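Objective 1b: paired records.
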Amino acid sequence: MNDFIYYSPTEFVFGRGVEEGVGAKAAARGFKKALLVYGKGSVVRSGLLDRVKASLDAAGVAHVDLAGVRPNPEVASVREGIRMVREQQADLILPVGGGSAIDCAKAVAFGALYDGDVWDFFCGKAKVERALPIFCVLTIPAAGSEASSSCVISNDELHAKRGTNGDAFRPAVAFMNPEITFTLPPFQTAAGVTDMIAHICERWFSGVGPVPVTDNIAAGLLRALIEAAPRVLEDPEDYDARADIMWAGMLAHNDIAGCGRALVQGGRAGGWESHGLEHEMSAFDTSITHGAGLAVIMPAWMRYVWREDPSRFLQFALDVFDIEPIDGSDEAVEDAVTAAIDELQAFFVDMGMPKTMGELGLREEDVDAIVETLRATKGDVFGAFKKISMEDAKAIYLSAFVDPALPALDEDEAEEA
């Protein structure tokens, strides 16, 4: 176990109807005016936003709205939120939504206290050291933003999607009511579960060997998600399964699944290769849902890199899927690892996630442009489990256009195709 620093300051208010206590909690902490940050209508149509506003009104906490935040939130919304905070003198940032609304709110929270442009934080010109307080009401379990030190924002002008990290913008309070997720469409539910699994796997394959306590936490979370997801897809109002997914999504990304696995004390475990590869896909085409992109690219990354440390993949196969090699031969090891990756990808597909890049609407001729934005974001080489060059990245992207379940074509067949 490597040295680490674990910090999780968020207060969690979990259960039925907890959103009705937002105002009282805000007033008790002395807040006077909240900037409400939300998306394009579901929180309005469901009545959730009205309940949150009624709670604020009853507690005497004023509020103003930053509405219309899109999936893959764009920096223009962040800049508008910063302007509103300064003009309205809001002292609390209150996103009501999923990871997109929360990440937009986080960027507003630290951008409002910065004299320069907020994009400076996403291109390495500035480091987050302080932020306005954040409460959040979670509606889509997926990104884990309700407790994480991560914030990802898109810049359409630059065709870029970049993240920054900082403990200063971890939410102070997260209100988590599983009932709110009953009406989530199956696709969003599945994309969210995929994102959670990716958060855990990024830490599992961090370039560090076994860390038994952390590994057991991670494997337990993965098994819980794999067990709960089919239940909610069959019965969207299965409260216990929804609760398991909502809580697991937070634990997947608040760093507990990476304790002792970082290469540097105080750093985050893992090289986040799959996330890095996917971010450029959904920056290239902002209609690509992050979780759906991960369902395609993470198995492709796994197939490309597993030989760097087969033992780590064998542990994953055993702890998550009860798969182990029949003997110690290279062939048996490859069969076990491949079977585990196949199982993971089959789980994604069974939930309704795509399997290939083509299903996302991408074309092989798009890959060069995607690789160039990846280079601009990550440099010539990135990663922890295996250093990924831009040539490696291109190979991974191209491999993800091919369904691994289909037999490979020989040269003559390929030419005919």
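Objective 1b, second protein:
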Amino acid sequence: MDNEIQLISDDDGLMVIGNAADVDRFLISEGLSSSKALGPQWLKSVFGAGAAVAQAGSEFAAESGSWVKLTPKSAQLVKKYGLRESAKTGFSTGVVKGQKGQIRGFVEFVKGPRSFLTNPANLANAAKLMSQVAMQQSMDEITDYLAAIDAKVEDVLRAQKDTVLSRMIGVGIVIDETMTIREARGRVDETMWSKVQDAPTAIAETQVYALRQLDAVAEKMDRQSKIGDLAVTVREAESPVREWLAVLARCFQLQDAIAVLELDRVLDASPEELDGHRLGLKAARQDRQELISRSTERLVARMDAVAGTANAKVLLHPAKSPAAVQSSNQVAIGVHDFHERLGIESGRRSSEARRWVDAAAEVRDKALETGAKGVDAARSRGKVTLDRASSAKEKVVGGIAERARRRRGSEVEGDGQG
């Protein structure tokens, strides 16, 4: 497969397979520096074991692979090279062919006679590998997230009296050990699987508990009406929200680890069921994301409401209102970061605490505007009053003059008669 690069793409990433030098050259030429090498076990994982590896060994001995997380940039490559999507698997595949160290042009996938992915079983194994690599990438990102927020998940769990939560620590240790053994052996046998097969129950129960704790935080804020009490409540919520998000992240991480082990176990025990099982795990993972998203988005919506209430009352509470907004923003930003690490879309922006002077200026401007309107109205009313007074005065003066004329006329008539 000299100078040929196999490309496989799904909803999560792009896998690049070929000679090690050609793969590196291709990634560099496309600016994909953040790729993840698949490691020495990747070929065995794709081909399985036994005769398939032996048959392909000489042809693919120099093969290597890298996986790139699907981003707008890497997704553009799928369009650039015209990868063909399979209606059956949902994967896009293709081959790019280079010459003298240069990748140039696209050779249609089905015309690549040496392509190992023409074998449906190999393609199913490659699909499994891509799902596993994507989940392991997510697990690494969650590890970075927990380190960044300095969250001691074990401390949070130990502080709880619930025995289900306490079991999470032991479950995590067993899963981590099994993942280490898998890395060394390249497979998951019955003995390894028996150690972790009951773990999903404890993880799911812990996840539900953590979600309920976040719901309780939101409900507690709903019961506060005074801005002072609201500011205290939202400030006190910052730490527990961060801790329970960390617990949820750890649950998600362990669930991904179980899925990685489960795919290897299915390949080892029932390879014909591998593709269907992979799709089922993917759907279950999306359901978990949606469940977590609904709960955490309710919390963010409550934070938005807190910020709105505090901003509306900043003039009366110049110290407490900005503090409430700041705390609500910290919680919302933490949720947004959590969503990003778990691959959940989140578009919430932070609210800005209004400064007291800004609010005061706004009130002043409104007062001046109202005052100006009042002066104009007063002037208008004064003019009407003056006009009415003048009219009344003219009527009075006219009436007096009329009566005077009448009296004079009566006096003249009386003199003539005498």
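The CA atoms of residues 103 and 361 lie 64 Å apart. Residues 4-117 form one domain.
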